[in-house]
Amino acid sequence: MTAVVPPEPTTEALSPFETGPGTPAGKYLRSFWQPVRLSQDLLEGQTQPIAVMGEKFTLYRGVGGKPVVTQAGCAHRQTLLSVGHVEGDSIRCMFHGWKFGADGHCEEAPGQSPSLVERTRIRTYPAHEAYGVVFAYFGDGEPPRFPDIAGFSEKHGKDMMSALVLDCGTYRRNCNYYVNVENALDLAHVPYTHRISSDPTITEVGFSPDVAFVRDVTVERFDFGVRAIEVIDGDAPTVSTVMLPNAMHLIVGQRDGYLEQVAWRVPIDDESHLSFQISALHTDEEGKRRYYEYKARRSELVAKYPSTEVCAEQILRGEKTLLDFADHPDLVNMEDHVAQMGMQFITDRGKENLAQSDKAVIQLRRMFMSRLADFVAGAPTPAGDW
């Protein structure tokens, strides 16, 4: 009997936008470590629901400090474990008290037989905490080596660990994650999208006004992704790299030195995503002082407004303008949010008119789709320094 071998998938049959369970891009992203929460937002003994790529999970931190990621519901009646109680490094369902260890095995099931306790378990997922961020692995089999962020910065950046300021943050954006992935290589948008946040006569903090010019870019391809480098006289170009499938590395001028950032765009579902960023400010002692002074006032400034997403939606409805939020600490995010919300999925071929300034974006699309096709066909993920 002759075996029937299915044809290899073509890039035309694949999409980077849909990442739910079973989708090609969803499986691809699940084969990498993904950030799920800032460490500071997950207290000892706390449980939280999280949503990643169209699936729900439970996240908690045991009293020993270890973060644990489990399936969303209890093995008994599927009550959400995120409304349960942490006991030691285990979690107890609030419905009937079934208790599960950090490895997923049932430890107690009040009123049930020992044999049921022995055979019952919930699914857990590998978790790793680094640089103030909790990461999880949602793929099959053993997780890959965790990326060497410090080593990558030493080789491709300015050595983040030596910066006077090292911080982390997160935001939510109500558009497909891949729109924001591509945005990392679209350096031509900065002078226009970030016109207000790069103007020191309007805003207190933000990009250096030196970056607010459209310049040609040099595009480089690596095993791990695509890089765009501004063509500029001097030694301070903006450099942005996308590390497939959904991480980025950025070096860009600020008013107090240079921002170096590693970030991930993580789908919540196909219409919204979270960004997690580890940021270093390469500055002097005075710049460090100003950074922390502004950070101390940040909560007071943010409290003046609704969430960043709501502010952006007010702008998109014509009720507000970006100038109404000139003192908002997340103005840069808001500017990008407003620009990207109208793009959504970029699925209608022929509607875009890509041009010279989009050459890095074009290279990324080709590389992403090629790697996605290779992944679906069973090829191993290329080994690199990311």
TrEMBL record:
Residues 33-136 form the Rieske domain. It holds the Pfam family Rieske. Gene3D superfamilies: Naphthalene 1,2-dioxygenase Alpha Subunit, Chain A, domain 1 (3.90.380.10), Rieske [2Fe-2S] iron-sulphur domain (2.102.10.10). Coiled coil: none annotated. GO terms for molecular function: 2 iron, 2 sulfur cluster binding; metal ion binding; monooxygenase activity; oxidoreductase activity, acting on paired donors, with incorporation or reduction of molecular oxygen. InterPro entries: Cholesterol_7-desaturase, Rieske_2Fe-2S, Rieske_2Fe-2S_sf. Residues 1-22 are annotated as: Disordered. Keywords: 2Fe-2S, Iron, Iron-sulfur, Metal-binding, Oxidoreductase. This is Rieske 2Fe-2S domain-containing protein. It comes from Amycolatopsis pithecellobii. The lineage of its organism: Bacteria, Bacillati, Actinomycetota, Actinomycetes, Pseudonocardiales.
